[in-house]
Amino acid sequence: MTSPNHILEQLARIANECRLTSLQPQIRACRQLLAQPGTIEVVVLGRFKAGKSSFLNHLAGRAILPVGVVPLTAVVTRLRAGPADRASVQFLDGTRREIPLAEISGYVGEQENPGNRKQVAAVEVELPELLPFAPLQFVDTPGLGSALRHNTEAALNFLPHIGAALVAIPADAPLSEHDLALLQEVRRHTPWIALLLTRADLLTETQRAQVLAFVQQRLSGTQNDGMPVFFYSIRSDEAAFKARLMNQWIRPLLQHHSAAGDQIARHKLTSLRDQILNYLHVALASATRADSARNALRDRLAEERRQFEWFRTELTLFVRTLAAGSLENYLRQLRPVQRTLQHRVTRELQEQFAHWHLRLPPLLDAWRQWLYEFLQRELTELSRTERPRFCTPLQQAQAHLTRMLQALHDRLAAHVRAALDLALAPREFIVEVRAPESPPVDVAYAFDPAFATLGWLIPMRLFRRPIQRSLLARARYEVEKTLSRLAADWAERIAAALESMARQAEALAREDLETLERMVSHASSDVPRLRQWIAELESGEVSPPHHASPNAPDANGRVPPSKTR
Ligand SMILES: Nc1nc2c(ncn2[C@@H]2O[C@H](COP(=O)(O)OP(=O)(O)O)[C@@H](O)[C@H]2O)c(=O)[nH]1
Ligand SMILES: [Mg+2]
């Protein structure tokens, strides 16, 4: 049988000659995988709050990973077996630093590492508790559709690197369209996938049976039909769930890890090969079909090219509309917070007044200093806690821009189908979220200087009450003003981030269109070369070998029902 390395080099060569740049991340991931055989990364994927981190803590038997972490710019955490507790942070610039286990949350969470200000690429943890699982490694991810995308390299490289995958979905909210799309995406990169229905303790046995039937019905007819499904709960009285997952999925993976590793590598190579073959078939069909068919396709693509300016405008308009509405949204959403802060400033300032028996100028100074500190402290905290809310437009943009790219690809696929009667392979588009740093809180207010000089003449005995009232009102106004300014600063930063996402989407769309244009530009003189490549790829043996082991999944990742219950 041809070695995986040999197949990969063949695929890389052809992809290179065809300039299929979008396949580069997959090619790099395969190289890396083949360079380090032996370990298998079990990646835990799924929405935010699906219970991924809780699950891994439960599996390790220790609360290592922070739970309830907002994923916006969080990073992946790798857990593996080691002789002693150890944790290290790997930074985007390639450096690494050892940290105490207790400090992990300072690097993986949005709250303590906003906008990934600390420039973290990943956190790696070694635990003796994981020795029984070696050579499996576990990867906690922050939630697809958001966090994996803060850094291009990490994002584009992540999915292709998946070894085995556990897709966590809350049992009480099972299998949305988003989950199905995720499963589909993951399936391209690994045959070893299982569905983990978390928080099973929230359901009765009857409800669990209903959920299982629902999930199986939704998966039927998809590539994931019949995939292993496990309920899970971190409640200690629900140990049977863990036992079943161990016996039916993790142990087989451990026992057959070398065969499974081979299967995973070959699955990725097959997937890569199919994508290249798809391009080649389109190229060949276009080069050999009657002129009319080819010309029809070229006309359609030329039309897409002419329309591209509109697509670009649409992208820009979309992000600008989102940006334009963001300030108003922030202000509306912050109104209750503003009222709370205004009540607090009034109450706390009233307490202060009781201590300040001062003439007017020093009173004004004390007031100003106190208010400055109050606003600085409270708004910095607010900007931190409200950060996910400020960044919401980025998530919305990511979802919509990805859909726009997908729609363009579908349109291109429809042209190919109409002209050549061929299906263009689906594509993954990743528009990364580049969440900005939080803006500094800007507290600035002027006070009439004449007031300060004349102030010494004002008899406080008579005017204390009206002056205090006026200072309270002024403080409430300053709360509103500073909050509005903070929202405006956020809106400005978010607008810039949105603009950058639109440009990314534009580049991806252009690449998609240009790749297809290149494919259909092949002349009849290219036909022998295209045929030769296709023959080369189709004769390559990349399909995984068949395993007779009782629990290993077959080529579709299905695990035969286990006798070990
Ligand atoms: N009742 C129950 N709650 C759970 C379970 N697993 C996780 N949770 C809760 O779900 C929330 C999100 O969990 P987390 O692990 O942070 O989710 P992640 O974002 O996917 O990593 C937390 O409040 C957990 O306490 C479970 O098995 N049962
Ligand atoms: Mg988590």
Structural account:
The chain has 565 residues and is α/β, with parallel strands linked by helices. The chain has a domain at 291-528. Helix content is 58%, strand content 9%. It has a nine-stranded mixed β-sheet, sandwiched between helices. Helix 2 (24-35) runs antiparallel to helix 9 (257-288) and helix 9 crosses helix 10 (291-355). The longest helix is centred in the middle third of the chain and has 65 residues, at 291-355. It is globular, with a radius of gyration of 29 Å. Mean pLDDT is 85; it is low at 145-156 and 543-565. The structure holds guanosine-5'-diphosphate and magnesium ion (MG). Residues 52-53, 69, 140 line the site of magnesium ion. Magnesium ion is lined by residues 52-53, 69, 140.
